[in-house]
Amino acid sequence: MTTLSLSSGTTEGRQKYIPFTRHSSQTTLQIFRLAAAYRSRVYPTREGGRILEFIYSSRKFKTKGGLTAGTATTHYYASPEFKIKQEKTKSFTCSPEEVISNGDSKQSTYCHLLLGLFFSEQVEFITSAFVYSIVQSFIAFEELWKELYIDIRDGTLSKRINLPKVRKAVLGIISPNPILASKIEACCRELEGLDWFGLIPKLWPNAKYVYSIMTGSMQPYVKKLLRYAAEVPLVSAEYGSTESWIGVNVDPCLPPEDVTFAVVPTFSYFEFIPLHRQKQDYNLVMDDFIEDKPVPLSQVKVGQEYEIVLTTITGLYRYRLGDVVEVAGFHNGTPKLNFICRRKLILTVNIDKNTEKDLQIVVERGSQLLSNSKAELIDFTSHADVLTQPGHYIIYWEIKGEVEERVLGECCREMDASFVDHGYVVSRRNNSIGPLELRIVEKGTFKKILEHFLGNGSALSQFKTPRCTSNKVLLSILNLCTIKRVYSTAYAD
């Protein structure tokens, strides 16, 4: 072993060091080839086409023991397997290695967009590890398109790209194309009037689908992506983690909310801890599941929920992944898993127990009330405040558009009333948990959080907004950027 992978650190607030070997790159190549085969049955692509990939490497460093450490995606993009994948699938990324590996995500994004536009007629599909990166790239495009079309027209490169190797690589690819530039300009002026609805099919007319991880904490970004994609299908990417790949999407025609993943038994030795939801004893604060003894892959049952346990070739032994999955069926004898949530409780003050999925449902219901105000929820996170008495939940929202205080009050009340966990409801009724607090943060707050993680070595393609945080630095950013506070009136009667 010569390399360590860093997890994103956004789930538990700290990065984990995971063994990474040549086998890790080989399994990544294997699952990408396997997934491409299933996708090509439903969405056949032209041989020799291009892929608009929003992919990013982060900086590497040496540990005290002399091992190279960096994100798993960084190691993979630098591996021979990444080039082999393009040759075997006959689809080539728009951007050269210099753009992917330069370490400046803003400059990389600009170049990805520029080269994606330059090869727009050849782009067969659009992808990134997480849907967050795609959405953020198109948000940036809304502001950058005038510079981009000028670069296409003149065959130049914006002064915002100041890394010599990147400039040389990109300028070696592009050339002046006034006809394409005029077409891009006309499309963008039309799209501005449509609030950028249908951006993808308009600018990349031959794109067959958008492909990315869209489950779990990525679900809130799918709604935004749907606006950009319009009729272009969204295909959920494979199920895996920094520790190991787990399953492949064998039904790419299914929408992201219905996707299941067929376990590939050779990636790890898989065990499954049966989980039974506990509804009787509300004093069990640490978890709401009762566990049975682990069972192997061959003994799982349809409809049962499990926590995944991994033993890997790279050295992890009976490693509890913390993911809750449900067996939805079987594919040629291997189980198809539906991802439910991260097992770790993210919001708890008293005897209440709310997971990431519970929070997502609540925020979705509350944010629906914004539509009448023509406003949009950009991003969110939460915090269980136990320092004040009684403790209470704080939900932070970044909003695009103007919203009246009355509407924010309705959103806050709706979210507070939508938590169905019995421990929470009882605690709210007897006031052992205080009213939910909604804090509105100024525009760009979640970009500051992103920049904090990138500054600590995370890659943009691996970033996930923490849905709950106790990180003092993040809370400081959120609280300094808070511009409005609203308290729930639910349970006031």
Automatic annotation (TrEMBL):
Domain GH3 middle: 262-342
Assigned GO CC terms: cytoplasm
Pfam families linked: GH3 (PF03321), GH3_C (PF23572), GH3_M (PF23571)
Location of the GH3 C-terminal domain: 358-472
Membrane-crossing segments per the record: none
Domain of life the protein comes from: Eukaryota
GO terms for MF: acid-amino acid ligase activity
Key words, A-Z: Ligase
Family statement: Belongs to the IAA-amido conjugating enzyme family.
Name of the protein in question: GH3 auxin-responsive promoter
Organism whose genome encodes this protein: Malus baccata
